[in-house]
Design a protein that fits this description.
With 259 residues, this protein is of the alpha+beta class. The protein has eight helices and ten strands. It has a four-stranded mixed beta sheet with strand order 1-6-5-4, sandwiched between helices. A four-stranded antiparallel beta sheet has the order 8-9-7-10, covered by helices on one side. A two-stranded antiparallel sheet has the order 2-3. This is MoaB/Mog domain-containing protein.
């Protein structure tokens, strides 16, 4: 409905790509059982891995688990031990646990529960003949905790993707392309993308290799490109123009007034 910004898929894609796993599609689905089942049927057997986020809470519009149960013809079974964990967690905070939270301790019989270290809804793992489905909470901190603690360490695409970003300012995209074109065409196993913004143009180098080889290859290519660009380059990767200007002001003992 446009009220929420999906940051989960961006983080997931970045983390998976670091491990050599390429995300080929992203789908946003409303809280509708039939629509969710339709998406599951579409990708089951077509992809090796499907990760969903959201819809595992205790309210009436949290229907993701129900949709998976319908698709996999699975019953729900109360995990008594996990229910006691939830009861105790609420008690320590000085609350009586709402009855609605009981649904979060109900685990599909055809799924494996994945512990949630920072929330109440566990993740779930379903397995079809050819596709693994991970069903995760939509709260970003909970999703990231489950991914970092339990899933990412087990996922490996064989090769890692690395990026190096060259930050430039004071030069337009077309001029960069003209200046760098001959060198870029000679780069091996490094893809170059130009990303214009209001502060300037970022040049993103992407390379794939086993281990740290991709990063080293990207750094080497960045060195060559920066040698051609000169002082229009102000930094790499997470360095911002504001940070560089601030550092220069401090070094020169100067101030800047803005109106």
């Amino acid at each position: 409905n446009g009220f929420s910004v999906d940051t989960n898929s961006v983080w997931l894609a970045q983390e998976l790509l670091k491990r050599g796993i390429t995300v080929v599609t992203k789908v946003s689905v409303g809280d509708d059982l039939d629509a969710i089942e339709e998406v599951l049927a579409r990708w089951d057997g077509q992809l090796e891995l499907v990760i969903t986020t959201g819809g595992l809470g205790p309210t009436h519009d949290d229907v993701t688990k129900t949709a998976f149960c319908r698709y996999f013809n699975s019953e729900l079974q109360l995990d008594e031990d996990y229910w006691e964990v939830l009861v105790e967690r609420f008690r320590k905070r000085g609350y009586d646990i709402p009855a609605s939270n009981r649904s979060q301790a109900e685990i599909p019989t055809r799924a494996e529960a994945i512990p949630n270290p920072v929330g109440t809804a566990p993740g779930l793992k379903f397995q079809s003949d050819t596709t693994t489905f991970y069903v995760l909470p939509g709260v970003p901190t909970e999703m990231k905790a489950i991914m970092s603690d339990h899933l990412l360490p087990t996922l490996d695409g064989g090769e890692a993707v690395s990026w190096v970003t060259i930050r430039t300012t004071g030069i337009i995209e077309s001029a960069l392309v003209t200046r760098l074109g001959p060198l870029v065409s000679r780069l091996k196993d490094v893809q170059v993308a130009y990303l214009p913004a209001y502060t300037g143009v970022d040049i993103r180098l992407r390379s794939v290799a086993v281990g740290e080889g991709g990063r080293e290859r990207g750094e080497s290519a960045a060195d060559e490109l920066e040698a051609l660009l000169g002082d229009v380059v102000y930094g790499r990767d997470d360095i911002t123009l504001e940070r560089v200007v601030g550092q220069l002001l401090v070094e020169r003992q100067e101030t800047l007034a803005l109106a």
